[in-house]
Design goal:
Distance between the termini: 54 Å
Largest sheet: 5 strands, antiparallel
Number of strands: 9
Structural class: alpha+beta
Helix content: 40-55%
Shape: globular
Mean pLDDT: 93
Number of domains: 2
CATH superfamily of the largest domain: Aminoglycoside phosphotransferase (APH), C-terminal lobe
Order of helices and strands: HEEEHEEHHHHEEEEHHHHHH
Low-confidence stretches: 4-10
């Protein structure tokens, strides 16, 4: 038995530490044979993640640090439906009684099948094409999930409500730009309600897609999934997958992603028209998300993130999109 999750310093994806006995007590309700090992993940800043190995299979245990017990059934049901519709995702695993939602140290938890693969680097146009195709297929499917609902908890009220919390972290010369962008994105939030809707991933960055032998093996980490504008979700993905070192969109990668996406869900003319505010707003969201994480770390406390990604990455992307959203790459 090997357990590297002995303390928060051992794995930045671990907030809730489990002993060997606690993990044995939890895993004996599944029909996978003997528990072989469990290891705290090195990724993730919101939830606790363990890789859990049995004699018969490999799994991932998620302990939810921010969401309540009432929220997790949405994620479980979403992954089940996506799998049924042919989108490669991690399946939530039921115990012998058919239960998929569990309590660990008074926190909600779920066990998932482990997707065999790893993140891909460097990002190639072929990888972008595959992720675009999968995202288009996902969006086409989730438009039909009309009885599955979750509010976007990081939409315009969240950005606007966190400005005072982060303003002193923002470089002074960009504070006016932040104020202006909040206004522009508020207007987009109103317009977005009239664009095609569905359940969005909300965080489809390169580190949330796993590849095996060059092929997409699975999309993971749906914990920002919610109902929302499909165009906004596409903009989130393109900002991360297709930005070059100068923060502009790489034409080959962007066009490859769009070719894949359009195979399953072509953009409407109205969506193409709204590309500039959508891609700006996607950049604003993650600039603000990282600024808030930096503020939380500065404030301290048990829920302070041990690792914060650089907010300036998305500041540079936002500056670039405001200057030129490169609409021609989306509308071809």
């Amino acid at each position: 038995m090997h357990n590297t999750a002995l303390g928060r310093g051992a794995a930045m994806g671990v907030y809730t530490e489990l002993t060997l006995r606690e993990m044995q007590d939890f895993t004996r309700q599944f029909n996978f044979g003997e528990l072989k090992s469990f290891t705290g993940a090195d990724t993730g800043v919101e939830n606790t993640t363990y890789f859990v190995s049995f004699n018969q299979t490999e799994t991932v245990l998620q302990i939810f640090e921010e969401q309540g017990f009432d929220e997790i059934p949405f994620f479980i049901e979403l992954n089940l439906r996506l799998s049924d519709d042919g989108i490669p995702v991690a399946l939530p695993i039921a115990n012998r009684e058919g239960t998929r939602l569990f309590a660990i140290k008074n926190k909600p938890a779920a066990l998932f099948s482990r997707v065999v693969g790893s993140t891909i680097a460097p990002i190639t146009p072929d990888a972008c094409h595959q992720i675009g195709e999968a995202l288009g297929k996902m969006h086409s499917a989730t438009q039909k999930y009309i009885n599955l609902k979750r509010e976007n908890h990081r939409w315009n009220k969240w950005w606007e409500g966190n400005v005072k919390r982060v303003i002193d972290i923002v470089p002074p010369k960009y504070r006016d730009m932040l104020s202006d962008q909040i206004s522009r994105s508020h207007a987009f939030a109103s317009d977005a309600a009239r664009l095609p809707q569905g359940i969005i991933h909300g965080d489809l960055f390169c580190d949330n897609a796993l590849f095996y032998n060059g092929s997409l093996a699975g999309i993971i980490d749906f914990y920002n999934a919610c109902n929302g504008s499909l165009l906004f979700d596409l903009a989130i993905a393109i900002n991360d997958w297709c930005s070059d070192q100068s923060s502009r969109l790489d034409p080959l990668k962007t066009e490859a992603l769009m070719r894949g996406y359009n195979r399953n869900r072509p953009l409407t003319d109205q969506e193409i028209h709204h590309w500039p505010p959508a891609v700006e707003t996607a950049a604003l969201r993650f600039w603000m998300l990282r600024l808030v994480a930096l503020a939380r770390k500065r404030e301290g406390g048990p829920q302070a993130p041990p690792h914060v990604k650089d907010p300036n990455d998305f500041l540079e992307i936002l500056i670039s999109r405001r200057r030129d959203p490169q609409c021609e790459l989306i509308s071809r």
